[in-house]
Specification:
The protein is mainly β and 626 residues long. Helix content is 1%, strand content 55%. The strands form nine sheets. Strands 3, 4, 7, 8, 9, 10, 11, 12, 15 and 16 form a ten-stranded antiparallel beta sheet that branches. A six-stranded antiparallel beta sheet has the order 13-14-17-18-21-22, with no helix packed on it.
Length: 626
């Protein structure tokens, strides 16, 4: 379940009819929050111990919300009960309050509070960091109930003042604040058939859950799955995809829509930025050029904002698509593949890149495709602007097709990946996990904490080896499930620098890991200097040592007698160099050790430390200064 570099749990029981992970989030303390659904049966929220079990008498799914402490212990779990529950989105504010959004039919029970729906309503609920319900609101709708048309929140986001933002879709009418002017919205009637379409809504509430404003996107056809993101400066971004055309009011009090997007493709992507009062500052669209095939499309699966106010999007496309939402052209062309793009706070394209071009034999390389086998579906952004993308792939795929090199990974069955890109879209590193069931492993969400941990949730069956650290098989966590279960993985990345450089006199040979960021892809050598002497002093002083370097858990390079190891090519990004089999002296010693990583062309990085060996009864604490 757990290790030095993180933990993983599987949630579910063989008798549970449905278990679906939906969302994950983190707080500033490194706690992990997750939400999802489970059908008739039970779900054990503490699968490695006797603990909290939630039960559902059916027939429809109930929801769950749980908090796990940084090392994997369950803090609390909450059940949401209704005849048919939908969970869509999860957010955590800087105070640790938790916001959950979705939909339900007939009635919804949360911690003793019961909401009633005549059809299918959307809801949002706020909880404290201890799991206590603060408030919950359902939004009355006129739509007759069916499992396919419950009005539901798609995204929940929170700004620095605790204001809550919601986006989603509705059909016919929805009321966000009965009796309050501006709270009721009515969806568009399709002029071709006289049927109400599913329009999109964007709503702002204050920290008490009171409506501040409601904005609407009017569609000639349905507008599914609009996403919302708030950056550190409280800028409001909305993105989604649509077919036909949509109209947007630039201001809440304008009688007629004044911004229109249209497309002749299956669907295309729109981007909006709103101000704090709900007025649209700008709108952009990804264009499928005229003359493209009727099967061309572009979608958006997830969005996020970095600390510089840039908006990141991940989604799918097919055929030629112009990814520059401004006056320029940034055309990419492929069949059913994934993209990630960055635009600045004014909607100008910064960069775009695509994935999955290696194996054309795999059908359905997009989340939009019914037969999806390879697609990127979710993203998160760290405080340095690095982008974490997660999804699934099968076959042989190139995760770096837009550069001069290739980075091909292969998987016989559907596998889960995390791709980490630098802020300029340069590939940094990847994680891959495999399942024994070819179609069972899917990712649903990813979140990062300020402490650098990475949480991922999804579904699986069969066996999955969630190796928490790529180069260390001892950090392997194997999860098994007979039927579909949810998984929750929290990875603690290795820190930059040395993990240790000390020993007890007389110990067996030790291993030391140096984690380092490489800026340029060239050939590298690793030199070890001891007390300023560029010789392999450890072998001379401590006896023969078969010292080597394990590179990212794969390649091995041996040290020569001068303390040098040829590592070969290292790509740009973070690498882990495990220096193996240093002998430990038979007496106390303090030695200055210098590591120097040198690339062809003069690129180098140097790290100095002290190698300390002492007797077990020593009580002093040695600080390793990097």
């Amino acid at each position: 379940m757990s290790g030095e570099h993180g933990w993983a749990v599987g949630l579910g029981e063989p008798s549970t009819q449905l278990l679906e992970a939906v969302a994950v989030s983190t707080d500033s303390q490194g706690n992990v929050y997750t939400a999802g659904l489970f059908g008739e049966g039970s779900v054990n929220m503490t699968p490695m111990a006797d603990g909290t079990t939630l039960s559902n008498d059916g027939p429809g799914p109930d929801g769950y919300l749980a908090k796990y402490l940084p090392h994997g212990e369950l803090a609390w779990a909450v059940q949401l009960q209704s005849p048919f529950t939908i969970i869509k989105s999860l957010a955590v504010d800087k105070a640790g309050n938790v916001y959950l959004g979705g939909g339900f039919s007939e009635r919804l029970s949360i911690g003793g509070l019961i909401a009633i729906s005549e059809g299918g309503d959307a809801f949002v609920a706020k909880f404290t960091s201890d799991g206590d319900l603060v408030w919950a609101h359902n939004f009355a709708a006129e739509t007759s109930f069916s499992t396919s048309n419950i009005d539901a929140l798609e995204s929940v986001a929170v700004d620095s003042s605790g204001n809550v933002y919601l986006s989603g879709s509705f059909q016919e009418r929805i009321d966000f604040a009965p009796g309050v002017t501006g709270g009721e919205l009515t969806s568009t009637i399709n002029p071709l058939n006289g049927i109400f379409t599913s329009d999109a809504f964007i709503v702002k509430m204050d920290y008490r859950g009171q409506l501040l404003w409601a904005q609407q996107l009017f569609g000639k056809t349905d507008i599914p799955h609009p996403k919302i993101a708030i950056d550190i400066h409280d800028r409001i971004f909305v993105a989604g995809y649509f077919g036909g055309s949509i109209d947007v009011n630039l201001g809440l009090n304008m009688a007629d829509p004044t911004l229109t997007f249209s497309t002749t493709s299956i669907v295309s992507v729109f981007l909006l930025r709103l101000d704090a009062s709900g007025e649209v500052l700008w709108g952009r669209q990804l264009i499928v050029p005229e003359g493209a095939t009727a099967s061309s499309y572009a979608t958006v699966m997830d969005i996020g904002a970095d600390l510089d106010g840039n908006l990141l999007l991940v989604g799918d496309y097919s055929g030629p698509v112009d990814f520059d939402p401004g006056d320029g052209v940034a055309a990419l062309s492929a069949d059913d593949t994934s993209y990630v793009m960055k635009v600045d706070a004014e909607g100008a394209l910064v960069w775009v890149r695509s994935f999955f071009k290696a194996d054309d034999s795999i059908i359905g390389k997009s989340c939009f495709s019914i037969r999806a086998r390879s697609c990127a579906s979710n993203l998160a952004i760290d405080n340095l602007g690095a982008i974490y993308l997660t999804g699934v792939f099968q076959g042989e795929e190139d995760f770096d097709p837009d550069s001069m090199r290739t980075f091909i990974l292969s998987a016989a069955s559907q596998s889960l990946f995390v791709v980490i890109l630098e802020s300029d879209a340069t590939l940094k590193t990847t994680y891959v996990w495999n399942s024994t069931n070819s179609d069972s492993l899917k990712t649903r969400d990813i979140a990062l904490s300020d402490r650098g941990t990475m949480a991922i949730t999804g579904i699986f069956s069969g066996s999955v080896d969630f190796n928490l650290q790529k180069e260390d098989a001892n950090e392997s966590v194997l999860l098994d499930a007979i039927s579909q279960e949810a998984f929750l993985v929290n990875i603690i990345p290795p820190p930059i620098g040395l993990d240790r450089w000390w020993a007890t006199v007389g110990d067996d040979p030790i291993e030391v890991t140096w984690t380092v960021d490489v800026p340029v892809e060239v050939m590298y050598t690793l030199d070890v200097t001891i007390d300023g002497i560029n010789t392999w002093d450890l072998t001379k002083r401590f006896g023969f040592v078969d010292a080597s370097v394990l590179i990212d858990g794969v390649g091995t390079a041996a040290f020569d007698n001068a303390g040098k190891a040829d590592l070969g090519f290292l790509g740009v990004g973070r690498h882990t160099l495990k220096i193996k089999s240093f002998a430990v002296p038979g007496k106390e010693i303090v030695e200055e050790i210098t590591f120097e990583l040198t690339g062809t062309g003069g690129t180098s990085q140097t790290l100095k430390s002290l190698f300390i060996a002492d007797y077990p009864e020593a009580t002093g604490t040695f600080d390793v200064v990097v």
